[in-house]
Structures are given as C-alpha cells and as structure tokens.
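Protocol step 4 of 5: obtain the predicted structure for the target chain.
Materials: sequence only (see below). No template structures provided, no constraints applied. The aim of this step is simply to have a reference model before the mutagenesis design in step 5. Sequence pasted as it appears in the construct record:
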Amino acid sequence: MRRTLLTASVVLLFGCDLSASGSASTSGTTAPPEGPAAPEYERAFDQFADVPNQMTAQVVWAAEPIDDAVRLADEVAALRAKLDIDPADFSALCTVAFSDGAIEVGAVTEVEEVKTELEATLAQIKEVGVGLQRVPSRVKTANKAVGKLAMSSPKLLLESTKELSREFAVAVGDSGVQIQADIDTAKALPETVKAEAVKAQSVLATLPDKATQATSNLMAAIKGESYEAMETTASGEAAVEADAELAADGTAVAAAAPSESGGGEPASGGGETTPAAPTAVALPPKGAATPSFPPQAVAARVAKLQQLGNAAAARGDWLSAADAFEEAYVLAPDDLTLAFKTGDAAAKAKDCTRAQLYLERFTQFGDQTMFAPEIAASTKTLGELKTFECPARTPEDEAARAATLVLEAEILGKEDDWGGAAANYAMAYQLDPEDAKLAFEVAVASWNSRECGDASTYFSHFASVADPRAHRSQLRETKRYQEEAEMGMCPTWGPGEKETHARDLYTQAQSRELELDFQAAISKYERAYYLLPTNHALAFRIGDSAWKAQLCEQAAANFRTFVTNADPADPRHSTDIQTAKGILAKVDSLGCPNALYGEATAATATAADEGDGAVEAGGGAGGAGDEQPPPSGEGAGASAGGGTSTVACSVTDDSAPAGALTFGLLMLAGLGRARRREA
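Step 4 output (structure tokens):
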C-alpha cells in the first residue's frame, strides 16, 4: 500500500503524463520557455562564426531537463543502495506530502538521520519533473531558434564579407594574413552552419521520446527497480556504460551481447561488452542492393544527367559535371564509366577527396582491357592526388559554377518557383561576388517570392556595389522597388495563395520524382514545407525522397521530424509512420550510410515486427498539421530525392520569420547538390 502511495505521489509531483508518444500536458503553462540568450558581438564575422555554437547551445538547453533526470536517477539509485534497506521500505520513505508548498518525508526511526538528504532529493525530483513536462515546449522553442540562426547566415555572410574586405584594405603586416584567413573561413561557414542545423534538428526530434524514457528510469530508480541506463543527451557522456543496466542494488550489470561465433556468451570472457560502432563506408559496397526504379526511367535519367554533365564541363564547371555524373552513377552503379567520369570531373574541380574515392573504385573494378586508357589516366591522377596537396579552387572555377546556378535559377523563375530562384542566385553571388548584377537578381527573385525584407536587403546592397554605368537600368529598377517598399506595396500572400503555391510546388516535385530528378524534387518539397510548416507530411516526402536518393542522414533527420510531429491516430499517416520508424530503426542499428546497403540487425527486425514499421523504401504522401494537405499519392511512382537541404522545414510556428531567399539560403552552403558520400 505504501509502495502504491509513492507512485501516485510522484505522478502528482510531476504534474504531467509523458506518454510513449512523446507528448506532454502543458496545461497551466502561460508562455513558451525562453532559450539561451544570444551573446553580444563586436563584429559581424564574430557573430557569423559563432552561429554553429549557438545552435549547439539551443540543443543543450532543450535537453537540460532530460540530462538532469538521467543524473538524478543514478543518484537516487545510489542513495537507496547506500541505505541498504529493502526496496519496499525505501519506497515507503519516499511518500511525498505537500503542505503549504513544502515537501515532507515520512519519518522512520531507523533512518531519521537521512531525512534531510531525502527531502533534498525529493525536491530535486519535483524540479526535474516540472522540467521534463516542459521538454516539448523547449524543443519547439529550440527548433525555431535553430531555424532563425540558419536564416541569419545570408545577411551575416554579406556583412562579414564587407566588413573583412574593409579591414583587409587597411591591414598591415601579419594582420592581413589573419584577415585573409577569416575571409576564407567566412566562405566555408555556410556549409558548417547547414551541417550543424541538420544535426541539431536531428537531436531535437529525439528529445520527447528520451524525456519519456528518462521519466521511466527515474520512477524505476525510486521504486528500486532496474532500468536501462541512458547517456546525457547534450554532452554525450554516458552516465554508465551504454549497454549496462542498473540493478536493484544500485550496481551496473553488463548486458550480454552475442559473440561473433554466434553463441550467446559475451565475446570477451565474462567482462562487459560494448558493440562496435557501425563502420561508415564512402561508397556503396560493390554489388550492394540499390533502390529499384523502372529501367526505362533510369536509362532516360542517366542519359539526361550525362548531357547535363557534359554541358557543365564544356562551360568549365567541373564541379557541377561531377555532381551530375555522380548522380547518374548512384542510379546505375554497374556502369563503371560513370565512376570514372565522376572521379575525373571531381579531380578537375579540385574536389580531391571525391576524385580519389571514385577513381579508386574505377581502377579496382574496371576491366583492364576494356578501359585501358581510362585506367591509365586514373592511375596517373591518383598518384598526383596522393603526392601533392589538393589545389585550391580558383575564382574562374567558382564563376563557372555560378553560371550553372544562374541557368538553373532562370528555369525555376519560369516555373514561378521564385524561392528556389532566389536561393540559386544568392549561392551564385556568394561564389562570384564580383558580379554585382547577381545581387540584383537575388533581390528581384525575393520580391517575386513575397519576401520583402530579403528583397530590401539585397536591393540596398546592390545599390552600394553597382557600377553606375554598367548597371544603369538595374539601378533604376532598384529605385522603383525601394520606393514601392517604402509605400508598403510589397507583394504579400493573399488568402489561400500560400497553400495554392505549396500545392504547385508539391506537384512540380512529384513530376521531378517521376523523372527520377530527386535533387530538384527535394528542394521543391522543402520550399512547400517552409510555406506550410505544420504540414508534416511534407517532412515524410523529403525523407522518403532522400532515402531513395541514398542521402541517409538527410532522410533520417526528416523522418525523425515526421515521426515526432505526425498524429499517429490519423489514418492518413499510419503507413508512413511505420515506414519512417522502420528506416530509423535501421539507421540507429547500422548508422549512416551503411543503413542504405546493410541488413537490419535482429533488434531492427524485432522492432519492425512489433509495429515500428517494415523497412520499406516507399510510402504514401498524405497531409498533416493544420494546413490542408497536398494531394496524396498523385504520381508518386518511383519517388526519390536529394538536393540541397534546409533547416527551415523544422520551424513549426507561424510567427517564424519567412524568407524565400533566407529559406533558400539555408541551403547556402551546399553551393550545389548534396553529396552522397557520408563517410
């Protein structure tokens, strides 16, 4: 009876029910919690360089109650072990009564001296319980903050570049070397920001479920029951060994792991065993299973990609050529000519790591007779790559890549996908900052995508760097746009227009999927999701497409977003939730990118058998959230996706700053297509 009273008291103390779905009751809460405040910076570059750290700080803050609960569970278990009394008696000691807000502990004569310690522990339990209740709100706040941080990158990049250029112009001696290093860092920061944003979102998506587990562990520790230990989420430090359980007496017990010989005994004679981390692979293992698409569609897409690659190479844009040939190789991995073309183009693009990967694959498996000239050329290039430092990309290289982005932006504009056009123009301008007209094109595309703030920023910037003679007509247009903005004439979304445009983007994405143009499909799904941030079915579409395009980490991040936010009671989502959970189980078991090619472990198979979803590459569409969903399943066919990813899709609050440019520039660091190499 006393044991039952303890459990009821702790539930009362927590004031919430963290269910298996990861949701929590937040009744009684008034305002969302505020995350960590941003520091003050003296320079724009300092602020830009600190963006990844600020994203990490948001994750640490969101996970703080979970980490507190993890540590407290171990402390409670240790305290109970120190008392060395029967678990039932220990539970009875922890009967909590509230009297005028004070926590009291029932007195037992034999342990009266530990009453103060117990009261302090129970006060901690109450504080942690309240914190766990707020985890979903913290996750939402942190997600929004991460999105805002990523969206600050375009403007910070512009400000940093201007700031550092001014400093460099007056630098003397060694200070110029440091400023040049800062300029190089600023150019590379977008890629870092993008990667950190995806990483932060992936961790945040797991926190509600971890809060549930941490609650269960704390309850088990109080009742003297064993529980599976958890790592502290933010720091990554294990409270105890990852595969250990805390037994009822407070000691760690190793979980038995099968040996490699297939027996049930631990691999090392009796000690703790730690499973080896999955070994990442750079390219699909030779002969690995790949997604199955209609042969005619594959042949057509591969031919199209080769045309695009050859055209890019003819313009001197070897980086885009390598991207196109690589995408073709992913679709047709038995065609080793594509591996050679990818490696050769990557070498000419000064993308040395990728060049070495693909040329080594080609020389290892290519027929020595059939490909004698190509193998000789590959061997020569590999020797150079292993002997000399990788050469830096030249301004001419970047200008050629920018020209390709401009061509793609023009196509997107004709499709009324002005958000995508703004993103491409902005990435082109980052690569070729001497072409001031690109800043004007960013501004116009942003204006057409109804992002007045971004448009105004770039119009103002263009006016400050434009050549009065060479850009006379663009300056006249800039003045007209600026006058309209001052008069409040910026275009805005009318009733239902945002939903209509999202549907148009969805339809365009599905058409790209049918053509196996997975890169473009993902980008369009992402822009649709940005417009309708509560329609989490779009997160599934992104994840499903990325999985089929063999972009493992991007797929996993979006599947986690979908599973966390989709309503499991909605029949439209049941199949997709099972699919997403099944793939996530495989990713958790094997790691990325091995999960794309390896077999699921027994644990993964068990999870699927228990309803966590079969590991499938497909899945339907369907809506989610408050917005009217896009049409479900129209033309889904052999959908797959890749493309440059964005963090904007995780913003689930309508008050989040919207910006097609800013949104598109969350892809800013990609400067092209996403890499399939996830080594």
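Step 4 remarks: The chain is about 60% helix and 0% strand. The chain has four domains: 2-19+42-246, 295-387, 395-449+451-486, 497-670.
Proceed to step 5.
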